[in-house]
Structure formats: structure tokens, C-alpha cells
Amino acid sequence: MQVHKYNNQMLGAIVVVAFLSMTTSTMAQATKKFVPNYDESKIPPYQLPAALQTENGDRVQNAEQWNDRRAETLRLFEEHVFGIMPGQRNIKVKVVRSDRDYRPGVTRHELDVSILPLDASIDRSPLVVQVLADVPQSDAPVPAILGLNFQGNHTIDEDPKTRIPTSWVRDRRNGTTDGSKAIEAGRGVASTRWPSKMITDRGYAMLTVYYGDIDPDFDDGFENGVHGLMPEFIASLPENHRPGSIAGWAYGLSCVLDAIEQTEALNVDATRVGVLGHSRLGKTSLWAGATDPRFAMVISNDSGCGGTALCRRAIGETVARINTSFPHWFNDAYLQYNENESALPIDQHQLIALSAPRAIAVGSATQDEWADPKGEFLAWQAAAPVYQLLGMPSEDLKVVEEASMPNGQSVINAGPMQYHLREGKHDLADYDWQCYLDLADRTLQTESR
């Protein structure tokens, strides 16, 4: 008995020591000052995973084989980066405003998209997502660009009728919010990022949603937002594969696309909707395009680490840094690749390739070194073989393969693939939109698919 007691005491001491050791190590990593590398000569040697080779080493040589490789690649991103969301959705939609006099030739709509619990027995209220849509008046349904915004639908212009979100918002500490509450002073503060008139003049509807309506941008233990509607589903997943915020926001975008399909009065062609995002929401648009092939065009602007920039380059923001600052964006499995990027079974060129053969646009900015513009360009370039396999003409492939990283503001167009570099900082600006709309003109302005 005494021996057992002694052993238990020793075991307890060992556990305490081990715990303290782990805690100290974790704290040391957390407090270690991060110094980003911007020196190309210091990039560690790396080899990109082959987009057209299966985990078993088999070459992918045709579209049928790509379907299997695509499913495999999607699973790898789910399990190692973003987490898993259900394939089912249940929504209801209500048009709460239709202002035909908003602008000559343009109707402004506001919709409530209610995302319902998948399990009807769960006692949870629907999650209501507010959608703002500026739609050119037309006899036939029009193509559209759908994107998430950062501060609320009321911030895209000064329209006094646009509803202010009641969900959590980030405290801007500049008078445009009251703590984590959106207020009147925020009207129009993000108007430079959402040039509605430019978009509708080109013949496209512009739809936007405040991302915090879908899921709050902090670690809430899956209690709020869209994650809170599916407790049983999330509990059924391995802990490392539970979905982060990016997966939740992408799921919400698919719910909005469901609403477009169900709302004839909107007059938007749901088969010609492009999905757009900037920064963390550019990561989201990529993942939405990967998980929902209904999106006809995928646009990722300045999305950097976890988006279009190659992880293995470790330039600017790295996996370790993003997991330290925003661990809730990803699943817990992603943590194992902190300062260990080459162990990832995938890289971001494969995330881009998941949009093939649909139109893909990648945008960078000259002063956005944190997002690694060259890494974004190289990932875009490395996705081209998948596009060729799925029918991109050889002359377009040649354009991509022979392209060099631009030195200044310019755009590279190659059939369904577009890359551009904009002069300036981390932002979503008019030049970005001009490039994206030019690609849309070639890919969305066609008859309904």
C-alpha cells in the first residue's frame, strides 16, 4: 500500500514537472519576438507537392483522374488546414427591402438569410445573415460578384436606409464603433473598397455580407455564429479536424448562394456568381470556391499566408505567426506545421488549383510584403498544369509558364487565369476591381451555364 502511494506521488510529480515544462515552452514560443524574413536568399530549400500526383505517387493524366485527386486534395486541406464543415445546409430567405430608386438603373435589395440548425431537434434560433445587393435593372438575370466585408453593410456607402448589424464587430477605436457595437458613425467608412457604381455600370450585381454576421472573428469555442448551429456535428469530428472561422465564413457564402438561387425577385443568375475576398476573406473566398463548385469565378485579393502565398517560402507572415495571432481561423492540426511548413502534405498552389477549370484571379500589392506577393504569383503559376489538364489552351499555359513576377503595376491574363500586381499597400482598390471585372467580362458575361 505504501509502495503504491509512493508511486502515485512520484507519478503526480512527474506529471506536474512535464506540465510545467510544456507550459514554459509554450509561453516561450508565444513571447518570442517574431522577426519576419523578407530576404529571398534566406528562404529554406523546399519542394512543392505535385498537384497532379496522388498520395500514392500515381500521375494524374486526365480529368477523371483529377476528380479523384481533387477530392483527395480537398480532404487534405480539410484535415490539415481549415477543418470540416457539413455538406448540408438549411436556409430560409426573406427580401426586406427593394429600392428601385436607389440609383438610376440599379435596385438596392436587402435580404435576411436565416441559416437553420441542421438538426431540427436542437433548440437554437436561426442565424440571420444580412445581405446587401445592388442589382442592375435588366430583363434577364445578371451575373454577380459576392464578397464578405469587414465592418458591416452600412460601411460600404452612406445610404441611411442600410441596416446596421447587431452582431459583434471589432472595436475600431476610432469613433466608428462603440466598443464591439456598430453605430451610425461607421456609415460609408469602407466605401473605397466597394465601388458599387463601377461594378453595376459593367453589368454586374454587387452582393456583400458582413463576415461577423456569419461567425465572430475570435475564438468562442464554437458557441456562436454558424458553428453554434451544429454542436453535434462538430462534437463528432476529431478535435484536430474541427472547423476554424475561415471554414465557417465559407459555409456562410454557400448559404448566401443558396439564397440567390431561391430568390427570383433578385434577378441574379446564380450560375454566374463570382466569389471575392480580401486578406483573411481572400483566404475565405478561395476555400469557398474549393468547397462549392457552383461559384463560377474565384477572386483572392492580398490573401497571403493561408491564402495564395506559398507556405514553404516562409516570407513575411508565416504559418507559425498566423497560428499565434489567429489560431481560430484554422483547425488545430495546422499548429503542427509551425516552423515546419515542408511537412505539410499540400501547399497553396493546390488550393488555387481546386478552382479549376473555373476563372481564378489572384491579386497582390507592391507594398504588401507581409503577404509575400512573389509567393502569391508563384502559387498562381504552379496551379497552371491543372488548368491545362482541364482544357486551358496551350497558348494560355505558355503565357503563365513564361511569365515573370511583375516589377510594377500590371496584369497577366491567360484564359481563365489572371494575376495582377497593384502599386500600393494592403487594400482592395479600384485597380483591383478593374482587373477582376475584366476577367469577369471574359468568363461571366456569357449565356447562363
Instruction: Indicate the radius of gyration in whole angstroms.
Output: 23 Å
Per the principal axes of the C-alpha atoms, what is the gross shape? globular
Average pLDDT for all residues: 93
Number of strands: 12
Approximate strand percentage: 15-25%
What is the string of SSEs from the N terminus onward?
A: HHEEEEEEHEHHHEHEHHEHHHEEH
Written overview of the protein:
By secondary structure, the chain is of the alpha/beta class. Helices cover 33% and strands 19% of the residues. It contains 13 helices and twelve strands. It has helices at 2-31, 63-82, 196-201, 211-214, 231-236, 245-262, 280-291, 319-325, 348-353, 373-382, 384-389, 394-402, 430-443; strands at 91-103, 106-115, 127-136, 142-149, 177-178, 181-182, 205-210, 268-278, 297-301, 359-365, 410-414, 417-422. A ten-stranded mixed sheet has the order 1-2-3-7-4-8-9-10-12-11, sandwiched between helices. A hairpin with a 2-residue loop joins strand 11 and strand 12. The longest helix is centred in the N-terminal third of the chain and has 30 residues, at 2-31. The model is unreliable at 1-27 (pLDDT under 50).
